[in-house]
Amino acid sequence: MKNAISIAILLLAFTTSALAQKGFEVQKEITINVPASELWDMVGPGFEDVHVWASTVNHSEGSGSPEFSGATCSERTCKVNLAGFDQISEKLYKYDEATMNLAYEVNSGMPKFVTRAANDWKVVAIDENTSKLVMNAEFETKGFMGGLMRGMMKSKMNRTLDDILNDAKIYAETGRVSKLKAKKVKKFQKKTA
Known about the structure:
By secondary structure, the protein is an alpha+beta fold. The chain contains four helices and seven strands, in the order αβαββββββαα. It has a seven-stranded antiparallel sheet. α1 crosses α3 (143-174).
């Protein structure tokens, strides 16, 4: 009986602790063998065309008048190929050509327990022919479901950002999509045929 009570107390403490946490961040970066200006052109002015190279996006489309100098749109809608998702809409809230930095927030398409999903992308020049793409994704959740799903979401986002960064590296360096992107394109074409 004492063991059962101890286990119940531990479970309650764990659950309360998990629910008290509100969010998490995932930071990733990759070195890419192209000048920073080329990489910025791909992710900054190319913000609305992420589907061309990112394996997680089947199609993307920009909309809205640009709110920042140099931006081509203020929002993008992405048809994604992530389990549990179909389409998400994102709104730029930062876009700076001088610092090669943009940030956006998902404004629709997330589960109800996700109260905020945002990503900040920064291109950093290492030397004249090498740059780094840095991503900082932030998520906030609410309620019991948010507490339960947070760990799984963080793990999935770690893998997803690794894939996206690898996709960016391959496309920027070679002009061709990654093997993962090619596989996803083929699957999407079969699905829509």
